[in-house]
Design a protein that fits this description.
Number of helices: 8
Distance between the termini: 34 Å
CATH architecture: 3-Layer(aba) Sandwich
Helix content: 40-55%
Number of domains: 1
Structural class: alpha/beta
Largest sheet: 7 strands, parallel
Strand content: 15-25%
Shape: globular
Number of strands: 7
Radius of gyration: 17 Å
CATH class: Alpha Beta
Order of helices and strands: EHEHEHEHEHEHHHE
Strand order of the largest sheet: 3-2-1-4-5-6-7
């Protein structure tokens, strides 16, 4: 018989970046349904996320922070730890993308993507690692990678580089921290129904081409990513370290 309590996050406090909309909001809702207290972080208002979590009886605290600055992100984490008690889990979901031909991509666009997607991601991992190790506590980290952690893509040089880096850092931290009680894993989302993919879904030809490659024959939902995050943050994933779970409807298998 399966012990369903192994999948519960009751009594856990989890910080999720980019929780105001899309995949981040879906993750926050899944965590709330699993019993976690959620700290949502982002630049814009998280009133909608808070309302949805409150409606299902989940605990939510919103924190505004500019994640372009790794220093601001680290200060935010330290304040969140002091204010909300020890943080048990971290989901590095926030990310940005800049589209341009490789010959046209500017240095500013390169830096802005790398700062949010990779630099801030690493230093938030470091912040949780330091705090947990110092307190002698276990902890779990889930980094949101991408299909472009495996593939090259086109016109997204900085995004591809950053998401390849997310996968590499996930594995490095797992190597360093697995024996110290900190699980570090990643999720690689496929094509998900969010604001970021609205234009693709509205283009009949592009949408048909994408769906034609997905064995599941549908776009993913934010909850598909959220439920995978619940698993990786739960005791059911105790022996998972440095793994990346593609949640892509079979995209990589095609």
């Amino acid at each position: 018989m399966i012990d369903l309590s192994a999948f519960s996050l009751e009594g856990q406090t989890v910080l999720v970046t980019g929780a105001n909309t899309g995949i981040g909001q879906g993750i926050a809702l899944s965590l709330g349904r699993a019993g976690a207290s959620v700290i949502g972080v982002g630049r814009s208002s998280m009133a909608d996320t808070e309302a949805q979590l409150t409606a299902i009886g989940a605990r939510f605290s919103g924190v505004q922070c500019d994640l372009n600055s790794s220093r601001d992100a680290q200060a935010m984490f330290e304040t969140a730890w002091a204010t909300h008690g020890p943080i048990d889990g971290l989901v590095n979901n926030a990310g940005i993308i800049k589209r341009a031909d490789a010959v046209d991509l500017t240095e500013d666009d390169w830096d802005s993507v790398m700062d949010v997607n990779l630099k801030t991601m690493f230093f938030l991992c470091q912040s949780l690692g330091r705090a947990a190790l110092s307190a002698g506590r276990s902890a779990r980290i889930v980094n949101i990678a991408s299909m472009l952690s495996f593939q090259g893509g086109i016109r997204v040089a900085s995004y591809t580089a950053s998401k390849s880096g997310v996968l590499g850092i996930t594995r490095l931290l797992a190597n360093e921290w697995a024996a110290k009680g900190i699980n570090v894993n990643a999720i690689a989302p496929g094509y998900i129904e969010t604001n970021n993919t609205e234009a693709l879904r509205a283009d009949p030809d592009r949408s048909a081409a994408i769906l034609g490659r997905i064995p599941a024959a549908r776009w993913g939902a934010p909850s598909d990513i959220g439920d995978a995050a619940v698993f990786l943050l739960s005791n059911a994933a105790n022996y998972m370290h440095g793994a990346v779970i593609p949640v892509d409807g079979g995209w990589l298998a095609r």
